[in-house]
Amino acid sequence: MTLRSDYLWRFALGEQPPVGLPSGLAAVRVGMALGLHAVDALVGDGVDLGPVKYCLIHRELVVPVEAETVHRWGAAHSDCVPAAGSRGCGVGGYRGCTGLWVTRPGPDRTAVTPAGPLHDALSLARARLRGAPAAHSPRHQEARCA
């Protein structure tokens, strides 16, 4: 498996989240193929991106977002879970979620990724991966309600 990006990242190997990550957050969980495209698009757009966990066993990304996102996230391509389940991917089984946390380098890192731009980037990436023409979606709005 190749974890490819056009941008510089700082890797922290292990299951512990980066220092300073608040505990009361929600998390968006998404498949790695879709999530990688969306995360790179956000960095390219200049969006302040928080830490991201790559679960290498289950091939999922975990992206911490604001806690209130759980109640308004309505995306078919991913799910959003409250703080209690926000440190691991959603796949069960005998092998727990393991992986590595990555953060953007720099002293002024943000604690979480904003939910609206993440939702837009995931939707656009999904449309591109499916080969369908992407419907015009206003960028950087609040996450759509279900």
Detailed description of the structure:
The protein is of the alpha+beta class. It has two helices and six strands, in the order E-E-H-E-E-E-E-H. The chain has helices at residues 32-44, 115-130; strands at 10-13, 26-31, 52-55, 60-65, 78-81, 99-103. A six-stranded antiparallel sheet has the order 1-6-3-4-2-5. The protein is globular.
The helix content is 10-25%
Q: Largest beta sheet, briefly? A: 6 strands, antiparallel
Order of helical and strand elements: EEHEEEEH
- Going across the biggest sheet, name each strand in turn: 1-6-3-4-2-5
Number of strands: 6
Anisotropy-based shape: globular
CA-atom Rg in angstroms: 14 Å
Mean pLDDT, rounded to whole units?
76
Secondary-structure-derived class: alpha+beta
Unreliable stretches (pLDDT < 50, length at least 5) are 134-146
Distance between the termini: 33 Å
The number of distinct helices, counting runs of at least 4 residues, comes to 2
Q: Beta fraction of the residues?
A: 15-25%
Provide a compact summary of the structure.
Helices cover 20% and strands 20% of the residues.
What's the arrangement of secondary structure elements?
Layout: E1 10-13, E2 26-31, H1 32-44, E3 52-55, E4 60-65, E5 78-81, E6 99-103, H2 115-130
Helix pairs in contact: 1-2
